[in-house]
Amino acid sequence: MPSPRALHNMKFKTSTMPFQYTPGSNQGSFTVTNESLFLWRRALIVRYIKISGNDPSTRIVWNDYERRSQILQISDDKNKFINKQPHKDLFKSTVSVSVGKQKLFVVTIFYTTKTGMVQGQASNTWLQTEFKSINEVINTIIELQKKKGRE
Fold first, then answer.
1. CA-CA distance, 129 to 97, in Å (whole number)?
2. Which strands, in side-by-side order, build the sheet including 102-110?
3. How far is C-alpha 30 from the geometric centre of its chain's CA atoms?
4. Interstrand relation of 10-14 and 115-119 (parallel, antiparallel or unpaired)
5. What is the model's pTM?
């Protein structure tokens, strides 16, 4: 695993998705495609709300926002996944992950710019582990969808 210094202003490519990370700022960003945008949303919901949300020492806060930063009440996680925008006014979604009283990171997906951002003390760890794993699963889903479409 590269040291944090070696990661400074480095661009990562995992499959077709670059990730930029600057350790001194404790934040990174990545771009998503039209076909992966709502897969990222669902993957984050499953990973942090459905899986980690049951751990009593972990605090997970998910919020969906419209352009004026008003919180939207969207419960699409209770329905079958459809790869489209779940609400016409959806601008961004955030998931904040804390353990005890320590906030580890916040992941934000911006739907209009197709950009993701991770911020916080554990953003480097998130890049090394979570981002790579989630991205690989999403890329596999997209490949399977393309393959199924060709059959």
1. 15
2. 10-14, 17-22, 27-31, 115-119, 102-110, 92-99, 58-65, 71-72
3. 9
4. unpaired
5. 0.79
**Assigned token pair, 107:** 């992941």
Q: Are 19 and 117 in contact (CB under 8 A)?
A: no
d(CA 137, CA 143): 10
Length of the chain measured in residues: 151
**Token pair 């993957």 in the structure block, residue:** 43
Q: How many CA atoms lie within 13 A of 6 on its CB side?
A: 5
Distance CA 109, CA 112 (A): 9
For residue 70, what is the DSSP state? Answer: P
Q: Are 35 and 83 in contact (CB under 8 A)?
A: yes
The count of other CB atoms within 10 Å of the CB of residue 80 is: 5
Q: According to the model, what pLDDT value does residue 136 have?
A: 92
φ, ψ of residue 128 in degrees (nearest 5): -70, -30
What is the C-alpha to C-alpha distance for residues 55 and 40, in angstroms, rounded to an integer? 22
91-122 pLDDT per residue, tens = 999 999 999 889 999 999 999 999 999 999 99
Q: Where are the domains of the chain?
A: 10-143
